[in-house]
Structures are given as structure tokens and as C-alpha cells.
Amino acid sequence: MQTITLKNPFDMHLHLREDVILESVLPFSARTFLGGVVMPNLKNPVSTAEDAIQYKNQIQNICPDFYPLMTIYITPTLDENKLKKAKDLGIKILKLYPKGATTNSNNGVDDILDSKMLKLLEIAQDMDFILSIHGESNGFSLDREYEFLSIFEFLAKKYKKLKIVLEHMSDHRSIKVLEDYENLFGTLTLHHITLDLDSLLGKGLSPHYFCKPILKTPKDREKLLELALNAHPKISFGSDSAPHTLENKLKDNAAAGIFSAPYLLESLIELFDKNHALENLQKFISDNAFKNYALDSKDFVEKTLTFYKKPCQIVEKVTTKDGQTIIPMHANKMLSWSL
Ligand code: DOR
Ligand code: ZN
Fold first, then answer.
1. Of 97, 132, 240, 282, which is least surrounded by CB within 10 A?
2. Is 212 touching ligand 1 by the criterion CB < 6 Å?
3. Is 117 in the pocket of ligand 1 (CB under 6 A)?
């Protein structure tokens, strides 16, 4: 039977939420990933080192073998002292949400280019933080990422020593910008490299494929898939798995987010296998991340996983302890690889 062995997979963009949802979704990531970059957009944003450490402890109490790389949400109250504290406690990543761009981003940044913010980013650069950005304008949905690119270019030029990450790249026009600046890096999700706008609304409306940035055109999907299959050295895998309850997915003003965590690696193996690129998967799901985020394998207990070419089925739903339902991406679908 055909097999593939993967080492130390890291999910560089992951929403785990809190309370009963955290308890229900985290084991799916911890099953196959050694660790992940945990997003700070909880109902109360993770905006200080103390918040992050408390959240990290909650995560490790549930899955002690999973390494959460914590992030700090850039809110208007973030300052040099708070940055210093976070740095001292080993936190490496700051997350910038433009105010109102996505789920729980009301505490985000109103004007990225105002002088206070620019000063803070200079301090972040001096302290060697990595700046991860949800890069979307508030313009027309399909152009939001494109319209934000000038801000990435401005920041990349101004802070040459600051590593800046274009999170969840969704528009092929971002690729050139990523390649033009040495200090720009990217993450790619499974959904943006395999789905397009038709998955969301081409037949009926499928709220489970509604996410931010919104799925785009077949051309965007193909160009981004190519980057993944080639394991472009500046790009790491970051699922942006973003669970929401079924109730919140079905209401008016539905929540954006695709809960992809349950079968990410099996799905990626199938995708890379189909495209004759299996030899690049290790780089895409781990090696690139170790380089780009300066992780040291000595800091982790190694995780090695062998997958077999043997069918498995994505679960239909996940039920939280208090009876809420969360529907995973491609619920019930058969996959050709399993752990
Ligand atoms: O689809 C998304 N969901 N995109 C984001 O940027 C946030 C995320 C969430 O937290 O639900
Ligand atoms: Zn996200």
C-alpha cells in the first residue's frame, strides 16, 4: 500500500475559539499537527501577554502535546511596554486586523498609516516581531485584498527588517507583491487553493463556503494552487480553520469562516498526490514555516505521521458539550488517504 510520512506539520493560521468550542475543535488539529499559530480574535481579544499566556494554558490543558504559537491582537491600547512583556514571554507574532474587516475585528486598527501605529510598528520591528496581517480594504468584496496591496508595499518598504505575512492569500495579484519584497511572506489555506466563488454561490448558496477573504475566481485558485504545489519558499500552510456554530452560519448576516481543521492533512495529501507534487508537501506543511517563522526544531518533541492510501470519510458534524453543531468543510466527503 502506498504511504507518505510527514514530519512536524504546523498550521500557521488557526482559529480555536474559547470554552466549549475550543474543547471540541482543538483535538482535530492536535490529532495531526504538531502545533499552530493561534489567532487572537476571541470575543475578548487576546491583546496582552497575560491574555495570551492564559489562553495558551487553556489550550495546553486540553491537548498537552500541541504547541500553540500565540499571537497578540493589535488594538488601540497596545504600547511599547506591552510589546516588551509579550516578547519576554516568548510571543513572536502580532496580528493586525483592519477594524471591521472580519469576525471579531471591531477592536482592530482604524488607520494603519496614522503616526501612532507607524511608531508602534517600528518598535515591533526593533523587537523582532513578525507582523501577520488580514489584508483587506473595505471596498468591493472581490477587490478587497487587491486594494490592500499598496499598504503591504508601503510597510514592506518602510520596515525592511520587519517580517510581514500576507495571511490567507486569495487573489493572484498578491503573488507579484510577495515576490517583489524580501520581507513579505504568505500563508495559503486549503479552501483558497481548491475552491472558487462558484463553490459558495454557483448552484445554491452554501454558507459553509463563506469566508473572508471571499473565495475568488478560477484563475486565482489555479495560480495560488500552483504556489502551494511548488512549495514556494516564502509561503507556509495556514488553514484559517474558523469554526462557527450552525446557527451562526445560517442566520442573516452569516458568520464568515470555514471549519477545515478535521481532515486537513488527508485532504492536502490527496490534492498533492492528484497533482503529482507529493514530494513538495513536507515543505508546504512544515519546513517553510520553520524557516520563515524562525522556529527551532529543538523546541519541540518531534511528531512523525504515516498516512496510507486507504479511504476515510470526513465527519458529518461536530457537536459541542452544550449541544451546538459545527459543520466541517466537505462534511461526509470520502478521501483517498488516511492516518
Ligand atoms: O473567514 C474568516 N473567518 N476569516 C477571518 O479572517 C476570520 C475568521 C473567523 O474568525 O471566523
Ligand atoms: Zn483567520
1. 282
2. yes
3. no
Domain assignment of residue 318, given as a range: 3-335
- CB within 5 A of ion ligand 2: which residues? 240
pLDDT confidence tier of residue 251, bands split at 50, 70 and 90 = very high
Average pLDDT on 211-228 reads 98
Question: Which residue has a Cα nearest atom 3 of ligand 1?
Answer: 257
Atom 4, ligand 1: residue with shortest CA distance:
212
The answer to whether the CB of 178 falls within 8 A of the CB of 169 is yes
pLDDT tens, residue by residue, 279-320: 999 999 999 999 999 999 999 999 999 999 999 999 999 999
The pick from 38, 167, 240 for probing ligand 1's pocket by mutation, whose C-beta has the most ligand atoms within 8 angstroms, reads 240
Tally of CB atoms within 10 A around 105: 20
Task: Tell me the CA–centroid distance for residue 267 and ligand 2, in Å.
Answer: 19
CATH code of residue 176: 3.20.20.140
| Ligand 1 centroid, distance to 256 Cα (angstroms) | 6
Which protein residue's CA is at the shortest distance from atom 10 of ligand 1?
Answer: 103
64 pLDDT band (50/70/90 cuts)? very high
In the chain, what percentage of residues exceed pLDDT 90? 99
Instruction: Look at residue 246 in the predicted model and tell me its pLDDT.
Output: 98
| Centre of ligand 2 from the C-alpha of residue 172, in Å | 19
Q: Contact 4/269 with Cβ under 8 angstroms?
A: yes
Annotated active-site residue in 51, 171, 240, 287: 240
Is residue 230 within 8 Å of 280, Cβ to Cβ?
Answer: yes
Annotated catalytic residue 65: no
Of 169, 170, 156, 290, the C-alpha closest to 233 is 290
Q: Which atom of ligand 1 is nearest to the CA of 167?
A: 6
Count of domains observed in the chain: 1
Q: Counting every residue, how long is the chain?
A: 339
Query: What pLDDT does residue 49 have?
Result: 98
Give the separation between CA 304 and CA 72, rounded to whole angstroms: 29
For residue 243, whether the previous peptide bond is cis, meaning omega lies within 30 degrees of 0, is no
